[in-house]
Design a protein that fits this description.
single chain; alpha+beta; six-stranded antiparallel β-sheet; five-stranded antiparallel β-sheet; 22% strand
Length: 598
């Protein structure tokens, strides 16, 4: 028994030592990592689920807002009176004119008889030039003087006084001048004195520079405060004096009784031809750069000796006639440079519209028929007929788009609230959310409630064939819609728009079905609406959840470091135990050898 006991004890001790000799047999790194992950995983999963749910909610709100905005845009397409003003136009002589209409045009028939088109004056240089680079004025700089029919020439009313010795009381003569506004660079000549504006001036400002003159010279005036408005040349001729100007009206009074009239005032522009541009080509370039309402081109007539001539063209309209002359430094005309009788005179367009005579400076005649522009292309053969009828094509398309937008929005509400929805991104994102039912109810009211501006038999969308079916889908009865638009067009417009234009979403005025819907949808989409604030709240929560994840990760990093430190200490202890094992084994083996005489 003693041997058995000894053998048993030895076996147990050997097993323990063997175990120690084998070491821990554990992958300490994996153990530490697995222990940390076992603690991290469930906590992280809980937080991540909250983030996923919040992100889904944000996607759901975004989807609802998207379709509601589409619905708002659809209602906006039928909320203004002008949305219903499209017309079909028929012109019996379409080659004679092009017709465009605006929102203010209305249905009806009109007659238009065009007897003359507006024309621009066209003048050509009297002499030709051998080449585009032929020298003019022997290469010295000169000026072109442009006088236009619609320039700022003052109007003059002369009243001759009674001369001395006529047997009646002698009186002074007067010339009353009414000035016009001037553009920068324009010049006006009055009684020998020329003024050139250095900036745009009102009629009152122009009149003020000619006040209180009596033989006054340009040198004197250029040293006064008036020099800030422009420059003077010449001298105000003696024989007349000027008084004060009132609103651009100035009276000149003669020094002598019964004096003769002053020369007619003139106005003109100056185009400077520098020494480097004193050629036909240079002159054309200077004119085209002047932006004074005329254009120039150099043409080749084919003449053997002097084929090149300059053609000057003004703007259309009788008031845009012009004269163009040249002036050298010595106030003489440039040799071989003049523009004689125009090739074509400036004329107004002449037409009668519904029997009313109309004159226009251009061939685009606006509002001779309300809301209509006539672009005249040629004269008519007698009167042309214009017929404007309603174009309901666009209106029907906009109403169809409204129905589609409503159904799309209603469908999206079903997708986000259906727990069984498998639609990617948006499906089942707002399950059980009361906001969905609230939005759906408001949408339904938009298309079923009576208009706050009913007209005749048109009181709601149902009266033009737009109704909800049993499934909540909005449908169009096309036959009913066509009849309403055909027979009650104005009433339909009133019911939908209240005959308003660009009514603000914040307005308290009645706006008809469409404007009221736009107001409600604008409120639903507003930055302070629950759709927005709840989405913003979820975004804030996500930030909070992500911060919790960061804190969890930090704790897990600390825990992993602690485990690694503890297991390192254990490894050290295992190493020490192994050394002890080796010593003990040697001792036991010696003792066994003694007992067994080995």
């Amino acid at each position: 028994m003693a041997e058995v006991t000894a053998t048993t004890s030895t076996t147990s001790t050997t097993s323990a030592i063997t175990a120690l000799g084998a070491g821990s047999g554990i992958d300490v790194q994996s153990l530490a990592t697995n222990l940390v992950e076992a603690e991290r995983a469930p906590r992280k999963a809980v937080i991540q689920k909250k983030i996923t749910q919040s992100e889904s909610g944000i996607s759901g709100y975004a989807a609802v807002k998207f379709v509601l905005n589409d619905l708002k845009n659809a209602f906006s397409g039928v909320k203004d009176q002008s949305d219903f003003n499209a017309l079909n136009t028929r012109v019996s002589q379409s080659a004679a004119m092009a017709v465009t209409t605006t929102a203010t045009a209305s249905t009806g028939s009109h007659s238009v008889n065009v007897t003359n088109l507006a024309k621009a004056q066209r003048s050509i240089s009297a002499s030709g030039f051998a080449s585009p680079t032929t020298q003019l004025n022997t290469g010295a700089a000169f000026s072109l003087i442009l006088s236009k029919g619609n320039g700022p020439t003052p109007t003059k009313v002369f009243s001759q006084g009674t001369a001395d010795g006529t047997g009646t009381p002698a009186t002074k003569s007067t010339a009353t001048l009414t000035f016009a506004p001037m553009a920068k660079g324009e010049s006006v000549a009055v009684n020998g004195l020329t003024f050139t504006a250095s900036k745009a001036l009102t009629a009152s400002e122009v009149g003020s520079v000619f006040t209180n003159l009596n033989g006054t010279t340009a040198a004197t005036l250029n040293a006064t405060a008036n020099a800030t408005l422009g420059t003077f040349a010449g001298q105000f001729n003696s024989g007349y004096t000027s008084g004060s100007s009132t609103a651009g009206v100035l009276v000149l009074t003669s020094a002598a009784n019964g004096a003769q009239d002053i020369a007619a005032p003139t106005s003109f522009n100056t185009i400077t031809i520098g020494a480097a541009a004193t050629t036909p080509a240079g002159m054309v370039s200077a004119i085209n750069s002047s932006t004074l309402g005329i254009s120039a081109q150099l043409i080749n007539t084919g003449n053997t000796a002097a084929p090149y001539r300059i053609v000057i063209t003004g703007s259309t309209g009788a008031s845009n006639s012009f004269t163009l002359s040249s002036k050298t430094a010595t106030d003489t005309a440039v040799e071989n440079l003049s523009f004689g009788t125009p090739l074509q005179a400036a004329e107004n367009a002449a037409l009668t519209v519904n029997g009313v005579a109309i004159s226009s400076s251009t061939n685009k005649v606006t509002d001779a028929i309300a809301g209509t522009t006539l672009e005249l292309l040629t004269t008519t053969s007698g009167a042309a007929n214009l017929d404007f009828t309603r174009d309901t094509t666009t209106v029907k398309a906009n109403l169809k788009a409204l129905v589609t937008a409503y159904n799309d929005a209603n469908s999206m509400l079903s997708v986000v609230s259906d727990p069984k929805s498998t639609v990617e991104t948006y499906g089942a994102t707002l399950v059980g959310n009361s906001m969905v039912s609230s939005v759906r109810t408001q949408m339904r009211n938009m298309v079923t409630t009576d208009s706050n501006t009913p007209s005749g038999n048109m009181t709601a969308l149902r009266d033009i064939g737009i109704t909800l079916n049993k499934s909540g889908v909005l449908e169009i009865d096309q036959v009913k819609m066509d009849a309403a638009l055909q027979n009650n067009y104005d009433q339909v417009v009133t019911m939908l728009t209240a005959n308003k234009e660009n009514l603000s979403a914040q307005s308290t005025l009645s706006g008809g079905v469409s404007n009221e819907a736009v107001k409600k949808l604008a409120t639903l989409l507003d930055a302070s609406s629950p759709l927005t604030t709840q989405s913003t709240s979820l975004t804030t929560k996500i930030s909070k959840y992500k911060a919790e994840l960061d804190k969890l990760e930090a704790r897990m990093t600390e825990l992993l470091a602690r485990y690694k430190k503890q297991f390192a200490a254990m490894e050290s202890m295992v190493g020490e135990t192994k050394s002890l094992q080796t010593g003990l084994k040697s001792t036991f083996e010696g003792m066994m050898a003694t007992y067994t005489n080995k």
